[in-house]
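Students often ask what a holo structure prediction actually looks like on paper. The answer is less mysterious than it sounds. You provide the chain, you provide the ligand, and the output is a string of discrete structure tokens encoding the 3D arrangement of the protein together with uridine-5'-diphosphate.
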Amino acid sequence: MKRVLITGAAGFLGSHLCDRFMEEGYEVIGMDNLITGNLKNIEHLFPLERFSFYHHDVSKFVHVSGELDYILHFASPASPIDYLKIPIQTLKVGAMGTHNLLGLAKEKNARILVASTSEVYGDPMVHPQTEDYWGNVNPIGPRGVYDEAKRFQEAITMAYHRFHGLETRIVRIFNTYGPRMRLNDGRVLPAFIGQALRGEDLTVFGDGTQTRSFCFVDDLIEGIYRLLMSDYVEPVNVGNPDEISIRDFAEEIIKLTGTDQKVIYQPLPQDDPMQRQPDITRAREVLGWAPKVSRAEGLKVTYAYFKSLSEDDLYKVEHKSFDDYIKR
Ligand code: UDP
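The corresponding structure tokens follow.
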């Protein structure tokens, strides 16, 4: 039986990856320090014999006994509010955490896939973003801790590949949504749906003309699985190119939830990218992959998930907005 280690296993993407590898018949070892992860996302796996979980911070030395075939490094805070709240941990897990896991992969002769991000392109001057674009990143801004950690992650991963001959894969993940997103992590989709469910106005930052392209989680997981199984070493964008302005997105959420609330405008956070859309030519050619789930379908499933959460989850608002957080 093949064994896979998944870091960030209790998080949004990590937990879906655990499910996928369990379905594929693997022995799955999940690891998470639970700073932003939630054990509820994987509690259904605990009774299963092929699943085990380690509560561990991968920024510290990682030990796993026995053989490993694959490592997927998905541990990291991943929302702008988290970067402000836990900047040092964000840097450490992308840099030292990646270094530890590359070392483990080398020791075990395992193939490793690291989760990179569209943030390596910063506030992009090229649109849509192709993998050969080097990016426009502010290293010292609020997003710098994430962007630069992920850029370092890509650099050290390629260095382990070139210098040690390690089998490495790099996925650049664009905005993704679906069940198990943290309701109050400050990301736009849970923010809007949470506000609609609580009967609050929807907060659009800036004038809402900035764009994002949202990928449903099932599509993303399929892309990642194919990349891991491929022999392609260079980074691959995985995301849905269907681009929408944040203002139009707010209107879609208002329609979806049937709320009477309106849109209110708040200041745009520093270095908020103006536009973002993946060019997925490489993923199509190398992986034969393209997203299948439309935003309408994906949002319906995601809304049903958020509606099923308890009142307690719904009102556990950590910070109301980016600005409120900075003021504290
Ligand atoms: N945003 C918004 N209202 C919110 C939260 C986010 O208008 O309550 C905007 C944010 O400024 C950004 C976009 O939505 O332009 C996507 O933000 P998110 O934090 O989800 O991800 P990003 O792609 O910026 O990392």
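The radius of gyration is 19 Å.
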